[in-house]
């Protein structure tokens, strides 16, 4: 018995560590079996219980009595559609859209229509355009004038009939025809209405697009039904896309059958009679607040809560009142934002105190990302030193330059802000005034924004009139604000690209490689791209072209390409000049092509590929933007590898080289944009053609066009190392940039240091 007890005790002691696991497994299995039995019993009771049918489970479609889904029910759950291709039909390449938003049928959020007239087009409509138009994604003005002169910066639609009802009818038709399938919400207002754009945009984000919405300031019809309401046009009103689609078939009937003097009453009666929908001032928990202005109202003195919460204010009698309203509402919105920032900062302080780091974990300023912490000395962000007159870190590399333009405005604003913050902190005990900026430092931290450190010489005055001069160091941060998506015109990848390749005698050794890459990446792939060669003859070579043509080999290679690709023609243009100015050469090419041609100005070292050509098409927008890519220049392999095997381009892509920021030779632009800028340049320089020798196409667009100049690194443009010949006949700046490009393209600092070290070692032995 004792031995059995000892054996039992040994077994229990061995199983003791596993007892919690066994108990947990047993308890889990028991609960799962018990839950399954309850679910089964509940299901049986639901099937057998008398009474009304139970609601369908969440996500399941409602069913009729015969078990089929109810008609009109739209199931939003994803379904896999099997792919089937008829073997008897020829295969066609499917052209898909560039953006998934287009393919999935997503709509833009809000479209705004402003009704104006002949009397207010150049006054109130201009005031609306200057105050709130840039806050809306899309805004159009509608008028009944036949040939109205459109003010600058406005998009006007003229219907040709000034009758109010006809204007409303034509406007609704136009909106449905041109924008009905592109937008979810349509906001209609008059030009004597001030609307808080940000509040209106916030309102539509809280409303469901699946309902028929007619939202505004509800008004009763004169002598009409007590329950019927129309939306007052003076305060604006919101229509959903679904309501607009249902209303459009009845607009003709409304125009013929409904008589009214006011266009907003006419539209409201049309919606009620044919759709049975009345205007409401609140929907889905959202209120459409309005405020009616009295005569001789001063917006600066309006402190009522109803005024501050208003989405729309009416009537606005003149332009000055519109601007005053915009200023007052901007101040109200700014105060709300500042108060919200303070509340969030207080919450951050309170919560950070409960973290393991405690109060030491609070960053400055509160709520802004902590400064970037470099992991090595190569990642340290350097500070730029400045004074009130000079900057000691200049864009051109010089040690000292005059502070001007945006940099001067930035320094002045930051000093003024620093003194203002000091006065806000120490008043009323002390009053500070700036004497001088002793030292200034600034750097851009990509994680938080622009940081400043200022040593200020200040005069501090007390309440009793005593003053003293003292030096004080302050730190400021201009944080990165909310990132906004800039609206850009839509472009496609189907545009034909016209490559332009200028060639000199020094480029002859590299033409064969260029033509091979062009044939492989564009002609073999049937890319929509053409090539034009520009042969630049020196005057001496031009005189001997009948005996010896220096470009005869290139022309033979072009002939071989045209034989291999029968449908391809590669034209060339011959030019005689001593100074191959890029602008003069482009003038010749521009005259021989249509105005809608998309040019890609290339170099003989450029390796053409489909990826870059597509980016050239997407980044170049007619009458909007030109594209100047920064190509990747590989280093000199003799210095980088020093006899070792070169790195594989697949595994070490973009490693042994740098992006050549000194080169502006490659460019993508439309011929129409170049001709417009070139016309302005010609009017500026008159007949001084020698000025063109100191300019590039980049300078023409930079100084003589209002287009966006998109300059970005382009990993799709990789050039092999070559020592380029710099023409001393060009301007000093162009020649200097060419020399710098050659020097920086030799190798990195580490590679150059290693080469010098090995050379010294060899000399010492």
Automatic annotation (TrEMBL):
Protein localization: Golgi apparatus, Golgi stack membrane
Organism: Sylvia atricapilla (blackcap)
Name of the gene: Chpf2
EC number: 2.4.1.-
Family classification: Belongs to the chondroitin N-acetylgalactosaminyltransferase family.
Top-tier EC class: transferase
Chief location of this protein within or outside the cell: Golgi
Keyword vocabulary terms for this entry: Glycoprotein, Golgi apparatus, Membrane, Signal-anchor, Transferase, Transmembrane, Transmembrane helix
InterPro entries: Chond_GalNAc (IPR008428), CS_glycosyltransferase (IPR051227)
Name the record gives this protein: Hexosyltransferase
GO molecular function, one term: glucuronosyl-N-acetylgalactosaminyl-proteoglycan 4-beta-N-acetylgalactosaminyltransferase activity
Membrane topology according to the record: Single-pass type II membrane protein
Domain of life: Eukaryota
Classification of source organism: Eukaryota, Metazoa, Chordata, Craniata, Vertebrata
CC per GO annotation: Golgi cisterna membrane
């Amino acid at each position: 018995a004792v031995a059995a007890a000892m054996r039992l005790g040994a077994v229990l002691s061995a199983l003791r560590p596993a007892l919690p696991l066994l108990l947990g497994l047993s308890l889990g299995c028991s609960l799962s079996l018990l839950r399954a039995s309850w679910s089964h019993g509940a299901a049986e009771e639901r099937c057998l219980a008398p009474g009304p049918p139970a609601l369908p489970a969440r996500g399941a479609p409602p069913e009729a009595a015969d078990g089929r889904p109810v008609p009109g029910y739209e199931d939003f759950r994803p379904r896999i559609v099997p792919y089937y291709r008829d073997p008897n039909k020829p295969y066609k390449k499917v052209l898909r859209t560039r953006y998934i938003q287009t393919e999935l049928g997503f709509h833009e959020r809000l479209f705004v229509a402003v009704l104006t007239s002949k009397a207010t087009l150049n006054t109130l409509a201009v005031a609306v355009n200057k105050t709130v138009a840039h806050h809306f994604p899309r805004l159009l003005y509608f008028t009944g004038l036949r040939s109205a002169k459109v003010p600058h910066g406005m998009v006007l639609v003229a219907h040709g009939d000034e009758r109010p009802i006809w204007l409303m009818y034509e406007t609704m038709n136009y909106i449905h025809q041109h924008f009905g399938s592109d937008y979810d919400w349509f906001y209609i207002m008059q030009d004597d209405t001030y609307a808080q754009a940000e509040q209106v945009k916030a309102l539509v984000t809280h409303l469901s697009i699946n309902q028929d919405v007619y939202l505004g300031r509800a008004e009763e019809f004169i002598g009409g039904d007590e329950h019927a309401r129309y939306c007052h046009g003076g305060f604006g009103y919101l229509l959903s896309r679904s309501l607009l689609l249902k209303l459009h078939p009845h607009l003709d009937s409304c125009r013929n059958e409904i008589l009214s003097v006011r266009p907003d009453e006419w539209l409201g009666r049309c919606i009620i009679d044919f759709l049975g929908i009345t205007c409401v001032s609140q929907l889905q928990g959202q209120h459409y607040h309005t405020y009616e202005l009295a005569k001789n109202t001063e917006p600066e003195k309006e402190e009522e809560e109803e005024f501050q919460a208003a989405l729309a204010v009416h009537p606005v009698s003149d332009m000055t009142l519109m601007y005053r309203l915009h200023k007052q509402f901007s101040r109200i919105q700014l105060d709300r934002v500042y108060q919200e920032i303070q509340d969030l900062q207080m919450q951050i302080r309170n919560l950070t105190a409960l973290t393991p780091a405690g109060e030491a974990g609070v960053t400055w300023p509160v709520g802004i990302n902590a400064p970037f912490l470099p992991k090595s000395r190569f990642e340290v962000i350097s500070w730029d030193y400045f004074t009130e007159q000079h900057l000691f870190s200049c864009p051109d590399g010089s040690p000292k330059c005059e502070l001007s333009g945006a940099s001067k405005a930035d320094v002045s604003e930051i000093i003024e802000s620093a003194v203002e913050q000091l006065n806000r902190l120490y008043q009323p005990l002390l009053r500070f005034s700036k004497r001088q900026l002793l030292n200034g430092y600034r750097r851009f931290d990509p994680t938080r924004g622009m940081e400043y450190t200022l040593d200020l010489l200040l005069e501090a005055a007390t309440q009793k009139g005593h003053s003293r001069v003292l030096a004080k160091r302050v730190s400021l941060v201009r944080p990165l604000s909310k990132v906004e998506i800039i609206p850009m015109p839509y472009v496609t990848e189907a545009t034909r690209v016209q490559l332009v390749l200028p060639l000199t005698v020094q480029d002859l050794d590299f033409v064969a490689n260029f033509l091979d890459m062009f044939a492989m990446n564009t002609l073999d792939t049937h890319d929509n791209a053409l090539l034009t060669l520009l042969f630049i003859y020196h005057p001496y070579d031009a005189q001997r072209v009948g005996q010896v043509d220096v470009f005869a080999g290139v022309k033979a290679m072009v002939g071989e390409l045209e034989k291999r690709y029968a449908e391809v023609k590669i034209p060339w243009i011959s030019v005689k000049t001593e100074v191959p100015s890029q602008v003069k050469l482009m003038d010749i090419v521009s005259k021989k092509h249509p105005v809608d041609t998309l040019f890609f100005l290339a170099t003989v070292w450029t390796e053409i590929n489909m990826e870059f050509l597509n980016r050239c098409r997407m980044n170049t927008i007619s009458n909007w933007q030109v594209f100047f890519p920064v190509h990747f220049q590989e280093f000199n392999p003799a210095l980088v590898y020093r006899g070792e095997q070169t790195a594989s381009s697949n595994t070490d892509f973009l490693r042994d080289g740098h992006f050549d920021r000194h080169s502006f030779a490659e460019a993508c632009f439309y011929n129409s944009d170049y001709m417009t800028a070139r016309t302005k340049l010609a009017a500026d320089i008159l007949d001084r053609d020698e000025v063109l020798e100191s300019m590039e196409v980049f300078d023409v667009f930079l100084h003589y066009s209002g287009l966006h100049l998109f300059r970005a690194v382009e990993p799709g443009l990789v050039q092999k190392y070559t020592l380029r010949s710099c023409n001393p006949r060009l301007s000093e700046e162009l020649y200097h940039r060419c020399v710098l490009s050659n020097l920086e393209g030799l190798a990195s600092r580490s590679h150059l240091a290693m080469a010098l070290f090995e050379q010294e070692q060899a000399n010492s032995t």
